[in-house]
Amino acid sequence: xxxxxxxxxxxxxxxxxxxxxxxxxxxxxxxxxxxxxxxxxxxxxxxxxxxxxxxxxxxxxxxxxxxxxxxxxxxxxxxxxxxxxxxxxxxxxxxxxxxxxxxxxxxxxxxxxxxxxxxxxxxxxxxxxxxxxxxxxxxxxxxxxxxxxxxxxxxxxxxxxxxxxxxxxxxxxxxxxxxxxxxx
Length: 184
Fold this sequence. Notes:
By secondary structure, this protein is of the alpha/beta class. 45% of the residues lie in helices and 18% in strands. The protein is built from six helices and five strands; from the N terminus they run αββαβαββααα. The chain has a five-stranded mixed sheet with strand order 1-2-3-5-4, sandwiched between helices. A hairpin with a 2-residue loop joins strand 1 (22-26) and strand 2. Helix 2 (45-57) crosses helix 5 (137-152), helix 4 (123-133) packs across helix 5 and helix 5 (137-152) packs across helix 6. It is globular and about 45 Å long.
């Protein structure tokens, strides 16, 4: 059995356990993962997250991580995303991904790991968007995970100049994963 097949088998076993603490790690960035919506289990979010984090850690965009960093990720439902979107953004609809940066200005001498914050990804919106665009759900979930982590690292798309920088990083990193430009 190959190493990847072993990892996939282990991930399946973990995902089937209700009490498992799920964790993805790649270099300087790691993620604690919680799966709240069962449809996510078929996409193996731990494996997808590890691939995304590894690709990010191999890219200059990760330099903003400043040492070892952690984040929390929740893979959840449209209903949960709608509630979060309403509570934190005043919008009464589900969305695909929300990022909640810790906002901590970490001094260089602070002990590691540094907490980046949290990300919530909604299955329903993600799946509908992937289906409408004719792309795989794994590819779209990878993009949303990356997008959320980049927000935690301080990237945003509020003005054109920042949007161009963030999108360029996304396209470069996704290309390394064999995923086409989501903005093309």
